[in-house]
Amino acid sequence: AQSVTQLGSHVSVSEGALVLLRCNYSSSVPPYLFWYVQYPNQGLQLLLKYTSAATLVKGINGFEAEFKKSETSFHLTKPSAHMSDAAEYFCAVSGSGNTPLVFGKGTRLSVIA
Amino acid sequence: DAGVIQSPRHEVTEMGQEVTLRCKPISGHNSLFWYRQTMMRGLELLIYFNNNVPIDDSGMPEDRFSAKMPNASFSTLKIQPSEPRDSAVYFCASNPDSPGANYGYTFGSGTRLTVV
Predict the structure, then answer these.
(1) Do A49 and B110 touch (CB under 8 A)?
(2) Residues of A in contact with B107 (CB under 8 A)
(3) CB A100 to CB B100 under 8 A?
(4) Which DSSP state fits A54?
(5) Average pLDDT for residues A85-106, to the nearest whole number?
(6) What pLDDT does residue B1 have?
(7) Is residue B102 over pLDDT 90?
């Protein structure tokens, strides 16, 4: 069975500072991993995904994530936070066949001016 | 591509009334998912379909909840009778292939349900 754990339900950073949102996964098969972003009053939007090609994945809005099998991690980073990055971020791991994505509980990112 | 379309965006209803939420997936997508999001419980998967067939409804909280997918372009989630604890944002999502395929789901904008 697959699962993801997001460390920290709320992360606060200053504008211009590094953003680091943590995600650890557990999977019985080689995983596909995803990060989604949810802005207030909107649906979830795919930010980036890892599908066993490059371990460093670049997404939209300057975000990237690195797949580290030895650490079972897929942390999301952005070098310099912008006010518009304030949102909820969800990590997810795929199933296989008819097994759906499993989402983490989410991390709310606040950006302080 | 209009994306996943949900209606209505907001619904306010009285306890005991029937509520029907609607979803139009992206054309050609084979899998459809219904999620519920609340502050207390986060994002919960209620039910999902593959090729219009319900695969797993174990996330449906009670018999008051039912979902249908009569064709590839339409799905409904019905609550009858509604209760205040059903107040939440309900999301529909679709996927081009099987539920576990690695494309990443496309979510609708959600329906905010308030039961008073």
Answers:
(1) no
(2) 36, 43-45
(3) yes
(4) -
(5) 89
(6) 66
(7) no
